[in-house]
Amino acid sequence: MAISMRLLAAMIGLKIPIAHGHTFMQNPVPFPSQYLDNGPVAKDGSNWPCSGDTEYDRAGIANVWKRGSQQYLQAMGGATHGGGSCQISITLDPKPNRQSQWRVIHSIEGGCPIRNLTEVNYGESPTVLLPSIYNFTVPNWVPIGPVIMAWTWYGRWSVPEMFMNCAPIMVLGGPQEPDVPESVRLEKFHAAPLVFEANNGNGCWTMNQGNCVKFPNPGNSVEVNEECPLDELHQVTGTCGPEHVLAKQGWSGVHLMLYQAMAAIALVVGAYLGCLRVQRHRSLSHRSPA
Ligand SMILES: [Cu+2]
Q1: Sorted alphabetically, which Gene3D superfamilies does this protein's record hold (predicted)?
Q2: What is the pLDDT of residues 159-205, one digit of tens each?
Q3: How far is the CA of 155 from the centre of ligand 1 (A)?
Q4: Is the dihedral of CA 175, 222, 195, 25 positive or negative?
Q5: How confident is the model over 231-283, as pLDDT tens digits?
Q6: What CATH code is carried by the domain that includes residue 231?
Q7: Do both 53 and 93 map to the same domain?
Q8: Å from CA of 260 to ligand 1 middle
Q9: What spacing in Å lies between the alpha carbon of 17 and ligand 1's midpoint?
Q10: Residue 4 domain-assigned (yes or no)
Q11: What is the pLDDT, as a whole number, of residue 275?
Q12: Parallel, antiparallel, or unpaired: how do β-strands 145-155 and 236-238 relate?
């Protein structure tokens, strides 16, 4: 309650348009930037990841996860699109960007961010706390220290769209953890599946016509709510799957063109300097002794 009131005050203070509400992550507590826009991820991926945050300012936010502890996900905002499927993933990058890899620690197929909804939406308010909470255990292979978690969500009834909110997390060791080297844990972390991506410019689109996404690679920790069809064959169009993430597609079109132009200029300049050096060398070696 305290958090939602503070948020609401912040939103009004920032003159955020809150009439058209989707949903926000309310726990864990997201970066303040995540409340600036509650719309979906841009269709061209231009605000991927984390709604285009570049600062990732952790000041004043304390989400502390001990390994092996139970944590929960909860969202707010009435535009719940009949629930859907969510994932919780983590990156080790302090300032995630397009190249960052998001490793899944928990997947919820169907009934997320709200379970057993009889209407498509849960009212109109963008700040109403949704009644469903989603417990999950922090895997014992998440590296200790600051990490960033993401909540990603595909609605059951909507246009093809994806939501993503990010939160700073401080991971601590669990009590009486077996003595496993951190390098072994890190290997496990990197073996976890990448988050499922669609509707963010990666060439994969979800259908959202009453179907809930069944993740191709949900990881070891999965909650399944069979309240909507989880039909893998009729849930996506385009090219989808673990290899189709923006991080693996590298540079976006505009960046690629810029990069190629820079490389071309560097080549020309390099060749020119090379010529100069050869000429200078020649003129020096041809100089006759006085
Ligand atoms: Cu929507």
Answers
A1: 2.70.50.70
A2: 999 999 999 999 999 988 889 999 999 999 999 999 999 999 999 99
A3: 8
A4: negative
A5: 888 899 999 988 899 998 865 545 555 656 666 676 666 666 665 665 655 55
A6: 2.70.50.70
A7: yes
A8: 37
A9: 15
A10: no
A11: 59
A12: unpaired
Distance 229 CA to ligand 1 centre (A): 20
Cα gap 156→8, rounded to integer Å: 27
Integer Cα distance of 163 and 151 in angstroms: 8
Q: Tell me the β-bridge partners of 169.
A: 147
21, 130 Cβ separation under 8 angstroms: no
Do 168 and 112 share a domain, yes or no? yes
Q: What is the pLDDT of residue 24?
A: 94
Indicate whether 5 belongs to any domain.
Answer: no
Which residues contact residue 212 at a Cβ distance below 8 angstroms, ignoring those fewer than 6 apart?
Answer: 83, 84, 85, 109, 110, 111, 154, 156, 228, 229, 230, 235
- Structural domain includes residue 2: no
Residues 167 and 35 in one domain: yes
| 287-to-251, 277, 278, 282 alpha-carbon distances in Å | 50, 15, 14, 9
Is the distance from CB of 68 to CB of 137 less than 8 angstroms? yes
**Does one domain contain both 74 and 90?**
yes
Provide DSSP, 87-101: EEEEE--SS--TT--
pTM for the full predicted model? 0.81
Pairwise CA distance, residues 14 & 113, whole Å: 26
The parent domain of residue 269 ranges over: 251-290
C-alpha distances in angstroms, 252 versus 14, 45, 204, 221, 248? Answer: 31, 9, 16, 32, 11
Q: How many domains does the chain have?
A: 2
Separation of 32 CA from ligand 1 center, angstroms?
21
Tell me: do 240 and 262 sit in the same domain.
no
- d(CA 210, ligand 1 centre) in Å: 14
Same structural domain, 218 and 287: no
Tell me, yes or no, whether 245 and 275 share the same domain: no
- Does one domain contain both 180 and 54? yes
6 found inside a domain: no
